[in-house]
UniProtKB/TrEMBL annotation:
Feature: compositional bias, Low complexity: 1-14
Record keywords, A-Z: Methyltransferase, Transferase
The keyword Methyltransferase is annotated on this UniProt entry: yes
Chain positions covered by the region annotation Disordered: 1-23
GO BP terms in the entry: methylation
InterPro entries for this protein: SAM-dependent_MTases_sf
UniProt cross-references to Pfam families, sorted A to Z: Methyltransf_23
Annotated protein name in UniProt: Methyltransferase domain-containing protein
Keyword Transferase (UniProt): yes
One Gene Ontology term of the molecular function aspect: methyltransferase activity
Length: 253
């Protein structure tokens, strides 16, 4: 077997994989999850009246704050993200009275909680009777905010967790369609496939493999963009599985 000696490919330290596309790619290959997330939150915000008090729980940098500009808004996160963040606390222990909030916004947090039942019970406690919660969380997404990434949820788990916490579940929807999941799989191929074959492979075996990897990476980028675009226009839910679920639930009167 012919082995190559220099330069040893694959020997250089690789940069850690990014969590998403770099900014120039984001512009051209916009992840449809962000679009669907905004659509669901916009609808929830439209159904929120001006005198209602909203809690954005696990708000992070509060990307949806503007949607609730017409209502009264408070935010909580265990890290201080903004000067105007209302509470720095665990969402399982919010320093407010029972039934304070008319609406709770709970986006992309549930998977980060080691005890999701305790957090949902607390969110139910701080919700007014008749109040509503929107929750979005992933079923299919790579590990992120490590090591604070504990769970993925099926619709059945979500139904049970919310009901056990005291909410009445109104709906559990796919947030994106399957085309969005496929787009994300293509994005993953583009970002995670290695560029170089193992250093001790024969020259032609390595070249063939690298050609395969590089063409798959290029196709991954192109198809991610095309599927994300399609998913934003056509939410196909006839087969496959969603990247995220969205739960709308209320606290009984
Ligand atoms: C993926 S980010 C989502 C942020 C924001 N909701 C959004 O939609 O962009 C998860 C957020 O949950 C917060 N978080 C995680 N565990 C928490 C906890 N136990 N109590 C309060 N915040 C928590 C993190 O600090 C982070 O800001």
């Amino acid at each position: 077997m012919t082995t190559r000696t220099a330069p040893p490919r694959g020997a250089t330290a690789r940069k850690p994989a990014r969590q998403g596309f770099p900014p120039w790619k984001k512009r051209w290959f916009r992840n449809s999850s962000r679009i669907w997330l905004k659509r669901y939150n916009r609808n929830f915000a439209r159904a929120t009246k001006a005198d209602m008090l909203v809690l954005d729980a696990g708000a992070g940098p509060a990307p949806f704050r503007g949607l609730f500009g017409h209502a009264r808004y408070e935010s909580a996160d265990f890290k201080q993200y903004r000067d105007d963040q209302t509470y720095v606390c665990d969402v399982a222990d919010i320093p407010v009275e029972d039934g304070r909030f008319d609406r709770v916004v709970f986006n992309q947090v549930l998977e980060h909680l080691p005890d999701p039942s305790a957090a949902l019970r607390e969110l139910c406690r701080v919700t007014k009777p008749g109040g509503q919660i929107i929750c979005t969380c992933p079923l299919y997404y790579e590990e992120h905010q490590k090591p604070y990434d504990f769970f993925r949820y099926t619709r059945f788990a979500l139904n049970k967790l919310f009901a056990d916490a005291g909410f009445v579940v109104q709906k559990v929807d796919w947030m994106e369609g399957y085309l969005g999941t496929v787009g994300y799989q293509f994005e993953g191929m583009h970002r995670h496939l290695p560029r170089a074959a193992p250093a001790d492979w024969s020259f032609w075996k390595a070249r063939r493999t690298e050609l395969l990897l590089q063409s798959t990476r290029a196709i991954g980028l192109l198809f991610a963009g095309l599927y994300y675009k399609l998913d934003a226009e056509w939410k196909f839910t006839g087969a496959g599985y969603p990247k995220n679920y969205v739960v709308i639930a209320s606290k009984p009167e």
